[in-house]
């Protein structure tokens, strides 16, 4: 692969990327990728529930532990079913965005739910 055919880095758009064997490397951010690899592949969030099942947007889950909710007078009980979840990249570990009847919109940690 010639230098003129090397695409820019998909993460930082640096024009200084180079071929290193079968991989392409960006010297500015350190990102490595293979030619033809889609940039969207890095953006996919993989979230697994408490028993290891893979979760996806729109799934229904069940709460497996009583959870205290800030600002609410009562806890979220075991067995509460949550429909239509949305996966997010939560920096604090809260990677499920959802609406729960009686509680409203909130974020949950995947370690406290099981796929329904």
TrEMBL record:
Domain Protein YjdM C-terminal: start-end pairs: 47-116
Name of the protein described by the UniProt record: PhnA: putative alkylphosphonate utilization operon protein PhnA
InterPro entries for the chain: YjdM, YjdM_C, YjdM_N
Family: Belongs to the YjdM family.
Entry-linked Pfam families: YjdM (PF03831), Zn_Ribbon_YjdM (PF08274)
Residue ranges annotated for the Protein YjdM N-terminal domain, each copy included: 6-34
Top-rank lineage group of the source organism: Bacteria
Gene3D superfamilies cross-referenced by the UniProt entry: 2.20.25.10, SH3 Domains (2.30.30.40)
């Amino acid at each position: 692969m010639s230098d003129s055919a090397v695409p820019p880095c998909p993460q930082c758009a640096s024009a200084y990327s180079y071929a290193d064997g079968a991989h392409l490397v960006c010297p500015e951010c350190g990102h490595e990728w293979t030619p033809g690899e889609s940039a969207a592949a890095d953006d996919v969030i993989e979230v697994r529930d408490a028993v290891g099942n893979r979760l996806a947007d729109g799934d229904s889950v069940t709460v497996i532990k009583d959870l205290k909710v800030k600002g609410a007078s009562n806890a979220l009980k075991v067995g509460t079913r949550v429909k239509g979840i949305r996966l997010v990249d939560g920096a604090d570990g809260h990677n499920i965005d959802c609406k729960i009847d009686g509680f409203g919109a909130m974020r949950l940690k995947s370690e406290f739910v099981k796929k329904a």
